[in-house]
Write a structure and sequence with these properties.
Strand content: 5-15%
GO molecular function, one term: phosphoglycerate mutase activity
CATH class: Alpha Beta
Keywords: Glycolysis, Isomerase
Number of domains: 1
InterPro entries: His_Pase_superF_clade-1 (IPR013078), His_PPase_superfam (IPR029033), Phosphogly_mut1 (IPR005952)
CATH topology: Rossmann fold
Shape: globular
Strand order of the largest sheet: 3-2-4-1-5-6
Order of helices and strands: EHHEHEHHHEHEE
Oligomer: single chain
Family: Belongs to the phosphoglycerate mutase family. BPG-dependent PGAM subfamily.
Protein name: phosphoglycerate mutase (2,3-diphosphoglycerate-dependent)
CATH architecture: 3-Layer(aba) Sandwich
Length: 246
C-alpha cells in the first residue's frame, strides 16, 4: 500500500519562481535543433550567457506583471541566481517596476543552473556527434538521473535546492519570496516542495522562459497553485533595440 506524500510545514507565505528571459544560448540551441547542426552554437562559459533582445523584452514584461500585483501580494524578498541571464532578468524587472519595487534582494549560489561539466553548452546533437556512447547513456539513464562527467544530475540540483529552502524557511519566516533562476531550479523546487514521497518525473516538465510558477501557503504548507504561467507575455510591449553583448 502506498502512503500519501508527506509535505513538510513552511513558515513562508508564498514562493514564486521565475525562469530567466530568453537567452542568446536559448536562441542558438533552438536554431541548432531546427537545422540539425552538430557544432557548438555558443562559446564561453554558461554563467556568462546573456539575455537576448527578446529576453530583455520578456524581463520588462515581468516588471509590468509585478506592477499589477495587488497591494499586499507583491514579494518582499527576491533571491536570484548568480548567472548573468538571471541577474539581468531581475534588473530589467526592477527598472520597469521602479515605481513599486522596493524590495530586499540577495544572490545565492545554490540557485545557479544545473552544471553540465565537460559537456557545458553542448546541444544534444553536438553531444551525439562527439560522444555517441555518452548520448546513449543519457537516454538510457533518463534526464533526472543523468550526471555528465564533472557535472550534476537533477538529483544533485534537488539536493542543493532542498538545502536552500530549509535555510530560506528559517531566515525569511512569514515572507513572500520571489526566486529568479533557471528551469532546472524551478523543476527542483517543484520536486522538493512536493514533500517526502514525491515521485521523480519521468520527463522533466517544461518551464517556459520568463514564466512564473507559484506556491502559496495553505494551512501551513506550500501548495503549487500555478505552473509556468506566461500570460503576462501576451500583453503589448515596446520592442527593445539590440545592444552589444559580450
Amino acid at each position: 500500500m502506498t502512503s500519501p506524500r508527506l509535505v513538510p510545514p513552511s513558515s513562508l507565505s508564498a514562493v514564486r519562481a521565475i525562469r530567466h528571459g530568453r537567452s542568446t544560448a536559448n536562441l542558438a540551441f533552438a536554431e541548432a535543433e531546427r537545422t540539425g547542426a552538430t557544432d557548438l552554437p555558443v562559446s564561453g562559459v554558461d554563467r556568462d550567457v546573456p539575455l537576448s533582445r527578446s529576453g530583455i523584452d520578456q524581463a520588462r514584461a515581468l516588471g509590468r506583471w509585478w506592477s499589477h500585483l495587488p497591494p499586499g501580494h507583491q514579494p518582499d524578498l527576491v533571491v536570484c541566481s548568480p548567472y548573468e541571464r538571471a541577474m539581468r532578468t531581475w534588473q530589467e524587472m526592477a527598472r520597469t517596476a521602479a515605481d513599486v519595487v522596493d524590495v530586499e534582494t540577495v544572490v545565492d549560489e545554490r540557485l545557479r543552473d544545473r552544471e553540465m561539466g565537460v559537456y557545458e553548452l553542448y546541444t544534444p546533437a553536438a553531444l551525439r556527434a562527439r560522444s555517441p556512447e555518452e548520448a546513449d547513456r543519457r537516454e538510457r539513464v533518463g534526464e533526472w538521473h543523468y550526471r555528465p562527467p564533472g557535472g550534476e544530475a537533477m538529483t544533485d540540483v534537488a539536493v542543493r535546492v532542498g538545502q536552500f529552502l530549509t535555510d530560506l524557511d528559517r531566515a525569511a519566516q512569514g515572507r513572500s519570496v520571489l526566486i529568479v533562476a533557471h528551469d532546472a531550479i524551478v523543476i527542483a523546487l517543484r520536486h522538493v516542495l512536493g514533500g517526502i514521497g514525491a515521485v521523480a518525473p519521468g520527463r522533466l516538465p517544461p518551464v517556459p522562459n520568463a514564466s512564473v510558477s507559484t506556491w502559496e501557503n495553505r494551512g501551513g504548507r506550500l501548495a503549487l497553485t500555478s505552473w509556468g504561467d506566461t500570460r503576462h507575455l501576451t500583453r503589448p510591449t515596446t520592442p527593445t533595440k539590440e545592444t552589444p553583448h559580450r
